[in-house]
Amino acid sequence: MQASDRFNINSQLEHLQAKYVGTGHADMNRYEWAVNIQRDSYASYVGHYPMLAYFALAENESIGRERYNFMQKMLLPCGPPPEREDD
Fold first, then answer.
1. Is residue 15 within 8 Å of 9, Cβ to Cβ?
2. pLDDT tens-digit profile of 15-67?
3. How many domains does the chain have?
4. How far is 58 from 38, CA to CA, in rounded Å?
5. pTM across the whole model
6. CB under 8 Å to 34, separation ≥6 — which residues?
């Protein structure tokens, strides 16, 4: 692998991270990463009707109620953010 190949791979990674929020970046902490994963999962459940119907059936709730519950869980999927240490 040459230096130009490494630069090209890094520039492609930076482009993906700038284009898509969920791919993360070097300064992302564990909490932010977990929130992105949870929100992406809930959005997928709401967006795919068969999956939403499966969850509604499994929890014995209506599909609309299950959609509402998933949308509410997207607000704070991993609880409140941890305390940050300001340097």
1. no
2. 877 787 767 777 788 898 899 899 999 999 999 999 999 999 999 999 999 99
3. 1
4. 20
5. 0.74
6. 77, 78
